[in-house]
Amino acid sequence: MPGLVDFHVHVNDPGRTEREGFASATRAAAAGGVTTIVDMPLNSIPPAVDTAALAVKRTTAADQSYIDVGFWGGAVPGNVAELRPLHDAGVFGFKCFLPHSGVEEFPPLHAAEVAMREVASFTDCSSCTPRTRTPSTPPRQHTARTTQTSCPRGHAGRRTWPSGR
C-alpha cells in the first residue's frame, strides 16, 4: 500500500519536546497515511547545523519513531564547512533563512550565496531552500529505501534513506 512523504515537518525534539516530539509527530503522521517525514533543522536544540547535532537528532528519533524519518541540514552563519559533512551524512537538503527564523539558535544567513555555491558543488545537487516551502529541485522519486535525485543541471545521484527506526 502506498504512503505519503512529508518533506516539510518541524519536530521540536530534542529541546522543545513539550511542543511536539518524534513519538507524537510520527504517530500522527502514520494515522494520516504518511510513511516518511523529513524533519527541518530548526526548532530543536541543538538545530541540525553540523554532524554532531544531526547525530543527536537521529539518536533522539531512533527509539521514538513509528515511521521512517529523514532530515534536512541547516545553513547558518559560520557553518559553510559543515555543509559537505552534513550532505555526506545523508541530509536531504539544506534550509536557511534570509530574515530572522523566529528562533535564536537558527540565525539568518547573510552570506547565502557562499552557502549556495557550496551546496551546488555537491555532485548530486541536494536542494537549498532559502525561505521556501518546498525544495527548489525536482521531486525525488522514492524507491524502497533509496531515493533517486536529480537537478536541472543534469546531475543525478543515489541517496540512502536515513531511517528513524
Short description:
With 165 residues, the protein is an alpha/beta fold.
Report on this model:
- The protein is of the alpha/beta class and 165 residues long.
- It has a single domain (4-160), classed as TIM Barrel.
- Helix content is 24%, strand content 24%.
- The protein contains 4 helices and 9 strands.
- It has helices at 22-31, 51-62, 80-88, 112-120; strands at residues 4-9, 34-39, 68-71, 73-74, 93-96, 127-130, 141-143, 146-150, 156-160.
- The strands form 3 sheets. It has a 3-stranded parallel beta sheet, covered by helices on one side.
- It is globular.
- The protein starts with a strand and ends in a 5-residue tail after the last strand.
- Mean pLDDT is 77; it is low at 125-165.
Number of strands: 9
CATH class: Alpha Beta
Write out the CATH superfamily name.
Answer: Metal-dependent hydrolases
Tally of helical segments: 4
CATH topology heading: TIM Barrel
What topology, given as strand order, has the largest sheet? Answer: 1-2-3
Rounded average pLDDT: 77
Q: How are the SSEs ordered, and which strands pair?
A:
Elements: E1 4-9, H1 22-31, E2 34-39, H2 51-62, E3 68-71, E4 73-74, H3 80-88, E5 93-96, H4 112-120, E6 127-130, E7 141-143, E8 146-150, E9 156-160
Task: Please tag this protein with its features.
disordered C terminus, single chain, 165 residues, alpha/beta, three-stranded parallel sheet, 4 helices, TIM Barrel
